[in-house]
Amino acid sequence: MDKLNKLSLPATIIIASLILGGFFYASQVNKQRSIEKQQQINIEQEKQGQLDKELKEQEAKEKAEQALNICIATAEENYHDRWYRECKAQGKITAKCIDIKELKYDEYLKKYGLTDEEYKKQRGITDDSEIAGLFDYVDLQDEECSCRLLVSTADRFNESLEKDKAECFKRYPQN
Questions:
Q1: Of these four, 14, 15, 83, 140, which has the most CB atoms within 10 Å of its CB?
Q2: Tally of CA atoms within 13 A in the half-sphere of 19 that contains its CB
Q3: How deeply is 104 buried, as exposed, middle or buried, from its count of CB atoms within 10 A (0-12, 13-18, 19+)?
Q4: 16 inside domain
Q5: Dihedral through CA 18, CA 20, CA 24, CA 29, nearest 10?
Q6: Model-level pTM?
Q7: Cα 84 to Cα 146: distance, rounded to the nearest angstrom
Q8: Residue 99: which of 133, 132, 144, 135 has the closest Cα?
């Protein structure tokens, strides 16, 4: 029995040490997994933050580009409008061209008693889409219903257009 008592104390210590060591090891493994999981979450949050930042930058870039395009289109529209008004003031365009410039497509068709199909036929448009006539009508306003102006007047209008476009690029710079 003495032998058993002498062996049981060290065996108990060894078994208790193993159990405590096992618990300690398991808690450390669990702690390490928790740390790794938190690091992974942080990495994913950083990636999402970067993606959000890139998306916002892209949206801002697209808005600036759209604003620039609208500004340039407005400058060009103003240019064509000034040219038209000058041609009209000098009596250098026909009454039909004045109608083309000043009437909407459907108003023009109604005034001249035309259907969309008849207009397309007159203009030699073979595209059967519903908007083909309208697009042609818009192009017609600036292409065929214009006139020649004095070089000094044309230069002044061209300089004004370039100035307006430059102002657009200043107002809406692109990165």
A1: 83
A2: 6
A3: exposed
A4: no
A5: 50
A6: 0.61
A7: 6
A8: 144
